[in-house]
Amino acid sequence: RRVHGGVHLTYRMGKGNQLPEVEMKDTKIPEFDEFFEKSSDPISSVIEWNNKLDEMVKETRSIGSDIKKESTAGGPPELGKLKIQVQDSVVTVSVEKAGQPVSPKTLDKVTKEYFSMVETKAKLLNKRIKAVQKLSQLENATFKTNAKAPHQLVLAADPAALEQHKKSDVIADLQRSLTKFNDRSDTLAIQLKGPVTLAEAVSALLNSMKEELKKKGQELKVAIEDGMPKIEGIPDSVEDFFPELVARGWELLKQMLDFIKGLKDQVPELQEKLEALINEAKDLPGQLKDAASRANLGAMELLKAGKATSANIKTLSGTPVILKTLSQTLKDTTLEIAGAVTGRVENGKA
Length: 350
Prior knowledge:
This protein is of the alpha+beta class. It is 60% helix and 13% strand. The radius of gyration is 23 Å and the shape is flat.
């Protein structure tokens, strides 16, 4: 079961918002491993929720940037395009504009910092893949571009060999670095495209929808109900009514609002589950010696079981902090969208 690796969630444009996946460590004590398997379910939910929300926000901002460019007011100028190449398992990143290379030195301060982050993560990936290639049957492991997300990389390797080594620290390190690289590269790509905030993106989308509806003698109705943005007056078949980009943006915004609304009910329930599991986990260290004896573990195996137990408890204990931060992010995201819905957007913020 994949869970987070004690990564603290911080929703800032220059920092990573995606949580990497790792494996709960095996203790080789049946009742302990059963408990940690049970514990991994709510932790996996936190990761999935966080990453899905982050992806939705990024995609909405990207679509919003395109919509602003197509509007009469125009959008922020494009600074260039991110180019990611993999040759002989070595990852390199660069920026191009109109087919010509752009020197990072000529970029503005913020974009330059983002590029530096991506470049640093690429260098770390190059180090990680060499370690992976030393594992049995993974000597040909490399990276390739994600077909669904051109600014992201995926690990290309023999599936059976990866399964064999999935609990290896080497694989865990690479997957963690790969998550961070993809997160930073997505952020950089949006920045190069012409950065817009979530509030600006939603505002641009709604304005375009209002214009299209007005042409057909219809009206977009917006309001705030129980703290959630409410948007009405949308035709059933948006694909036939709005331009493709606007239709796609609306479908994404609708999905995000439904997602946030659903999480507001689920987060408190998950908080209670985590607290109960954490309290139960506090007793495990005191039970370790007897449990290891029942499992017929030797002295060295007992030592390893103790380290695995401590690591798993640490992972479990850190999850409520991440869940609390995610709850705040849900509130902040809702406020940004609400500001755009009610027209209260100044300096890119609601």
